[in-house]
Amino acid sequence: MKYEINTGDHALQIEIHSEREKLVIHYGDRHLEFEAVQVQADMYSVLMNNRSFVVGVCSRNKDRVNVNGTPVSLRLLDAVHLHLRELGWESMEETKAGLVETQIPGLITKIFHQKGDEVIEGEPLFLMEAMKMENEIKAPLSGKILRISVQEGQTVDKGTHIMEIG
Amino acid sequence: MFKKVLVANRGEIALRVMRTCREFGIETVAVYSEADRTAPHVLFADEAYLIGPAPSSESYLKLDKILDVARQSKADAIHPGYGFLSENTEFAHKVAEAGIVFIGPPAEAIETMGDKTMARQAMLQTNVPVVPGTEEPIKDPDKALEVAKDIGFPVLIKAAGGGGGKGMRIVETADDFVSAVGKAQRESKSAFGDDRVYIEKYLEGPHHIEFQVLADQHGNIIHLNERECSIQRRYQKVIEESPSPFIDAELREKMGAAAVETARKCNYLGAGTVEFLVDKYKNFYFLEMNTRLQVEHPVTEMITGIDLVEEQLRIAAGLALDIKQEEVSISGHAVECRIYAEDAVLDFTPSTGKIVMLQIPDGAGTRFDGAIRQGMEITPYYDPMLGKLICWAKDRESALNRSERALREFYIGGIETTIQFCRSVIRHPVFRKGTYDTHFYAKHKTELHEDLTRTSEEVLLVAGGAVFNHEEQIKHTSQSQGSERRSRSNWVTSQWRRDQS
């Protein structure tokens, strides 16, 4: 089956075949025997043509892989994805660019704007206290604040929608 | 010597202190918050007492509660670790009033050195040079601007009650000054409840070099050489090493003598650290004194063979130092890498969650001071530092090779960490050469981040194969469980950015 390893900067076209217990990756004229054995939880021992790698795959975020300590961000696009892309349909899974979400839990200490305000990219939106630090969150793009979903003094979880800019 | 010591802290430093206590047959008492019932320090201790809910303001900072536990458990001494109550004069006073030994300096020394302005004023009466700047803390931003203009830009704004880089900012021009003061004040107010700041000259090619001192109750004060702490990110130390590749024996002797003079000036007792700024012309200036055990104390232990916690206990118990200045030697080289639960790729966003996989490096000259284990939840309540990797070898190059090897061996799955970032720093040619200063990170940020995410074709193929394999497994598992395939999680195109000033 055809796949594309896409990192944003690079795209490798590969084919993956299952042969008995092993996988074979075809890349250009290379044939790579690929064997992954789960060591524990999200950690695998990979032997690719007998070269040894320790690979971490996070179930929570499958696009982030760790190979021998190096973090790799990639998407593995299958034939369906590739076909959709050929038809000009971009992935429907992309995060909305103007949606500001929290990456960690914390306390919203100050909100600098009101709904309807125009902000420019890089302008501070709000302050959040988390892990003993005051974090200033800046506008990811220029636009109008369409929605503010939290109030000052509110404790928020990871992944909370704070604002939407459009 | 003490029979029972209460450790008023958590995490790696609580464990670090308890380990030495146990080696000397001293019983240990842990205190813990509701979030820490199964934390490593609770499991290690001989006794453990719940002191309150998860937020540190309701638990690890509750000094009366901790004193009650000390009385109840009949502890004869309290070790405060670092952070929390370690530099709290009220706590030091109250401990002493309760007839319990505070393992640290007298409250007066904490008071003098804890307040940067008071420390500066005290140092102006000695031969130890200080950085040009304000003598008094300032509240009014316009007045501060006048001072800044007098000193000349760039200047540094610092919180009067601060530490660890919190509430600290460099300002390049007068235009940015007033808003920067406001930010520093807000940060300082929320972190320390004090919104006074002070302004000082920003030095060229500065190195942050500190000296470990030990002072006993019999008037003996010695220093245990320096630690080079110039690898910082947002004023937080990332990697420390000893000896410093920047200073020579002559400067070491001069700075060591200044450190001892500083300790003498504030009637210091116990283990302390005198921090200096050294500019590129090798002029050194007193920066501050930390009146506690430092995070990076292990590098000193590795090169001197001295257990600093043991010395703290001995001094607090009234024993005289059994080592003289001329007997302190430097053996080999040690490097410490701080491992934080932060995502270096996403601008060091704190990362919380469960540690699903843990492989701690091992082998010759490799020490890990941490308090983590597999299955443990990293919560947002406390400092994001997971632990410290300290590598020792016969010389600097070998110590760096060893650090790189150990970092590659280190694997923490489930949360993001700074392991790989430390590796990128250690293999950077400027760091390797030892010619770096505190601007290292800012100057080489792009290269470091490129190195951090640089992947060979081979690594990409391995990663792609691993994702395929993992998805097949999940598919297989969910089919066999009759449940739906888990949806693909969004790649975090984060809008989360920390303040970059």
* Content of β-strand of chain B: 15-25%
CATH architectural name of the largest domain in chain B: 2-Layer Sandwich
* Strands of chain A, total number: 17
Pair of chains with the largest interface and how many residues each contributes: A-B, 75 and 66 residues
Unreliable parts of chain B: 482-501
Radius of gyration of chain A: 21 Å
Q: Which overall shape of chain A is indicated by the principal axes computed on the Cα atoms?
A: elongated
Average of pLDDT of chain A: 84
Q: How many helical elements of chain B?
A: 16
Q: Roughly how much helix do the residues of chain A carry, as a percent range?
A: under 10%
Unreliable sequence segments of chain A: none
Radius of gyration of chain B: 23 Å
Here the CATH topology of the largest domain in chain B equals D-amino Acid Aminotransferase, Chain A, domain 1
Q: Level of helix content of chain B? A: 25-40%
CATH superfamily of the largest domain in chain B: ATP-grasp fold, B domain
Report how far apart the termini of chain B are. 48 Å
Molecular structure report:
The complex is a heterodimer of chains A (166) and B (501). Chain A has 166 residues and is mainly beta. Chain A is 5% helix and 56% strand. A 9-stranded antiparallel sheet of chain A has the order 8-7-6-5-4-3-2-1-9. Chain A has a 4-stranded antiparallel sheet with strand order 10-17-15-12, with no helix packed on it. The longest helix of chain A is centred in the middle third of the chain and has 8 residues, at 79-86. The radius of gyration of chain A is 21 Å and the shape is elongated. Chain B contains 16 helices and 22 strands. Chain B has helices at 11-23, 40-44, 63-72, 89-97, 107-114, 116-123, 141-151, 174-192, 249-265, 297-304, 308-316, 396-409, 419-426, 429-433, 440-453, 457-481; strands at residues 4-7, 27-33, 47-52, 77-79, 101-102, 155-159, 169-171, 197-201, 207-215, 221-233, 236-242, 270-278, 284-290, 333-340, 342-343, 349-350, 353-354, 357-359, 366-370, 377-378, 385-393, 411-413. The relative contact order of chain B is 0.10. Chain B has 3 domains: 4-103, Rossmann fold (3-Layer(aba) Sandwich), CATH 3.40.50; 132-201, Dna Ligase, domain 1 (2-Layer Sandwich); 207-455, D-amino Acid Aminotransferase, Chain A, domain 1. An 8-stranded antiparallel sheet of chain B has the order 13-12-9-10-11-14-21-19, with helices on both faces. In chain B, strands 3-2-1-4-5 form a 5-stranded parallel sheet. Chain B has a 3-stranded antiparallel sheet with strand order 7-6-8, with helices on one face. Chain B is α+β, with helices and mostly antiparallel strands and 501 residues long. In chain B, strand 2, helix 2 (40-44) and strand 3 (47-52) form a beta-alpha-beta unit. The radius of gyration of chain B is 23 Å and the shape is globular. The longest helix of chain B has 25 residues, at 457-481. At the A-B interface, strand 2, strand 3, strand 4, strand 5 and strand 6 of A face helix 8, strand 16, helix 13 and helix 16 of B.
